[in-house]
Amino acid sequence: MIKMGAKRGRTSNQLSLVSCKESSMMASAVNVASNEDLLIQILLHVPIKTLMAFKSVSKHWLSLITSPGFVHLRNPLPSAASLFFATSFCRNNPSYQFIPLGATDGCPAPFKTLDFVHDPLGSGISVLQSCNGLLLCASYRARELKRRYYVYNPTTKQSATLPQIRREYAKKVCGMNLAFDPVKSPHYKVVCVRRSETNRQLFQIEIYSSETLSWRVSGQPFAAPMYTSFQNCTYWNGSVHWWRGRVDPWHRFIHTGVRIDGPYTLYLKVDEERVEQLPLPMRNIATVNLNEQDEVKTYFTASYIGESEGHWHIIEEVPRHILGEVPRHRNNPNLSLCNVYEVARDYSGWFVKYQVDLSAISNVFPEIIKYRYNRCSGYILNILSVVRRGREEEDASFLVAEIPGGKVIRYNLVDKSMTKLWELTPIGYKFYNDDGLRRDCVSAFSYIESLACV
């Protein structure tokens, strides 16, 4: 009896100790939850997917996690977690492939198709632009007059349908661009460039604000150089930057009697609502034969344009010349190098930030060599993105490129090392072209985890 009582006493003591520990932990948890500053510091280090689950803990946690102040603290300088692009030749709702940028990142793709809203046109939804965690989307394969536009956060699954601009202007739309900087404001803007109603050769800007939920005309009509593309843009340094498909600096382009000198492109300072000119870098030298006379033309053709962590990069066209047959020029001594340009934040000029040695890449991945008459005639690769990571002295910046055979490689821009990053999954009819690349060789979009509200 005494022994049994002793055992019961020890068990009772153990339960009391456990109960005390649980009570102490509960008290600590209550103290943490009641101390909002401490709670914020803890939540700032929690993965975003876990934060999404924590929003259902209580109304207080939901309000805290979705507050603009917390969103700003959580991710003031967004960093791309992966790249994605649409598969080729999709007649209906396009599907997307994701390429994780982390070496061991096994996270599933945030989406394969966009079904966050039922588009009334029935052809599905496609991504037009990625900007600091938000996506600008539109009706897929639709005429501009009926097309719907959306802003979507793939992390929080929130979306907003933009009101349509006036019907008489809808068919004159040349491009829609998203401008969002979570460091400056929790609100985003959408820039619409359309033809002027008074002069078809001039352009007019309208701006939509998520704060006012309405469109309004901005500024006066303006002229643009020939081949300016308003469809694809880069948002950087508080400005929407447009690019030109072709550049010939020896010509002057005339619009409505206004003589425009090249080569330059245009950008819009969003807050000031002012269109400015940005001179383009000139790098390549080509020799052409015209009426048996050699004429040297200086031009710049970009094979990649993109922004990463506060830096805007442009890469000159990958050399695809007939090596050894094109006369070398003193300003272009090595046709196996292509330059990665960066523009100064004050727009004072361009400078070569990195050089990509294509011959070095071909030593590791010989499939990029294009042969003609049993000799190297150039290089085949599609540059998907330039990714900046932290400080350059830590060898963190790299280039992502697609090479023949569905491979995606990572090229370190500092130490020149390279590894295979991913292998694409062929989807759809004739996924690869004759060069072994995707048939639609476009740059990839950046997927950035964000808590921003739309």
Automatic annotation (TrEMBL):
Taxonomic superkingdom: Eukaryota
Entry-linked InterPro entries: At3g26010-like (IPR055290), F-box-assoc_dom_typ1 (IPR006527), F-box-assoc_interact_dom (IPR017451), F-box-like_dom_sf (IPR036047), F-box_dom (IPR001810)
PANTHER family: EXPRESSED PROTEIN (PTHR35546:SF130), F-BOX PROTEIN INTERACTION DOMAIN PROTEIN-RELATED (PTHR35546)
Official protein name in the record: Uncharacterized protein
Organism expressing this protein natively: Daucus carota subsp. sativus (Carrot)
